[in-house]
Amino acid sequence: MKFIVYNVRDDEIPFVQKWGKDHGVEVAYTTTTLNQETVEEANGFDGISCLQTIPYSQELFESMKSMGIKYLSLRNVGVDNIDLAAAKENDVQITNVPAYSPQSIAEFAVMMALYLSRKVGYMQKQLDQNHQFHFSPYFMGRLMSEQTVGIIGTGRIGQEAIKLFKGLGSNVIAYDKYPQKTTNGQFVYVNDIEELLTQSDIISIHMPATEDNYHQFNHEVFEKMKDTALLINTARGSIVKTDDLLFALQSGEIAGAGIDTIENESADLQDSRSTKQVTDPDVIKLSMMPNVLITPHSAFHTSEAVRNMIDISLSNLVSLNNGDKPKDLVD
Questions:
Q1: Does the pLDDT value for residue 270 go beyond 80?
Q2: What is 102-294's CATH topology?
Q3: What span, in angstroms and rounded, lies between the C-alpha atoms of 32 and 75?
Q4: Which CATH class is domain 2-100+302-330?
Q5: Which residues are known catalytic residues?
């Protein structure tokens, strides 16, 4: 039994090596992104572990079938970039890691909310662009306990975010198409998303990307939000229409945004060894705004999360090769 790990980052390598040693399994790794051409590197292996936001195409699964590779184990949660029908047609079974560290992403969302609420971006602008370092009345922020936080999506990550915001004294409301049976007195579900939009000072998105929520946050939605509201997106870039977000920020429809994931993320974004200069005009525009904190899809990135992503992904490959049905099998 031997596996290959694609798109590995330098910080993942020690965890890959340790897992292989602890389990007595040969594990190779490559920094290469997985596609129909690079899959040739997997020839002779019994399974592939991968983490990327670029598409897993029909052609890739056809190549895997021709090579006799039946198992693809993701190191992340989302499957919105996978041609699941093509995987099934080519007899490739897929697993994911639904809960590698919900707290890691939740903490990052709260950090973004604090950064924006306390106007840290304006302080940095004064220092970085104006080369000044002094008090300003424009730096006056708001306490978290003064604000209503709207959580969209109350799965594992959303629930962790609720605990943290509640711990800071925020009033927390939430919306989910499939609500939890109990809220434990930590938050209140609203009847519809419109109610959440109009009541929230901070909106934090924690739902998976689907066809139904593609560009759900658009000009129409931003108009309904408070002009003092902050938007936090640590979920998926496709949920927010970038052009409309830029307009909302520039026109004052909303007060700020924390963006960890953007539309059409490139393979280069996940290349930890890249030295390329940023050229995406939307990223450049957002990065220059003091009321925006933009980060390269890194909300998950803690030692606990990386360890769990490696361990669970590779253990799922063992289960598949042993003929077992992993609990993380994607149907």
A1: no
A2: Rossmann fold (3.40.50)
A3: 15
A4: alpha beta
A5: 236, 265, 297
